[in-house]
Design a protein that fits this description.
- By secondary structure, the protein is α/β, with parallel strands linked by helices.
- The mean pLDDT is 94.
- Helix 7 links the parallel strand 4 and strand 5.
- The protein contains seven helices and five strands; from the N terminus they run βααβααβααβαβ.
- The radius of gyration is 15 Å and the shape is globular.
- The protein has a single domain, classed as 5'-nuclease (Rossmann fold), CATH 3.40.50.1010.
């Protein structure tokens, strides 16, 4: 059986070390264990890496870098097609504010790289029915495979940690 390709946004990596949200951290760590076992193919974009390394908390940056060193992943650079899809997200009325540019880029990256699932814990902007349905529509109209947007918990067998 073909492995699912996951695109991880910054929130997923960030919740690997987020003791203030123990449930989300536990779910993300459980997914991380499955990734380390090789259950999934993983893509992370330069946007994700930039957001992680731009954090002013050096200890957190080092911890997250250690987590990233545990897994295999492809790094996706931003290109014109990703920018085009990100722009479509905005022009269709999703995530229109300039402060959502990185969220739009995460969507563009996930769609263009052919990810089966964009994994995120960003419930406000990405993991919600309006964005999920909108992104599915954009992907199909633009000739890309269908894509899902979901939190780590949905990838853990049984959904419980």
């Amino acid at each position: 059986m073909k492995k699912l390709k996951l695109y991880l946004d910054t929130s997923v990596v960030g919740y690997l070390d987020e003791s203030s949200s123990p449930r989300e951290m536990a779910e993300t760590l459980a997914l991380w264990a499955k990734i380390k076992q090789g259950d999934y193919d993983v893509v992370i974009s330069q946007v994700t890496l930039d957001e992680i390394y731009d954090n002013k908390n050096i200890e957190k940056v080092n911890t997250l870098a250690d987590f990233l060193a545990e897994i295999s992943f492809d790094i996706l650079s931003i290109n014109e097609e990703i920018l085009r899809i990100a722009d479509l997200v905005k022009t269709t009325g999703l995530l229109v504010s300039d402060k959502h540019q990185n969220d739009r880029l995460h969507i563009g990256c996930a769609v263009v790289c052919g990810a089966d699932i964009l994994v995120s814990l960003n419930f406000k902007h990405l993991v919600n029915i309006k964005t999920v349905k909108g992104v599915r529509g954009i992907a199909v109209i633009e000739g890309y495979a269908g894509i899902e947007i979901m939190p780590p918990a949905m990838l853990i067998e049984g959904g419980d940690v």
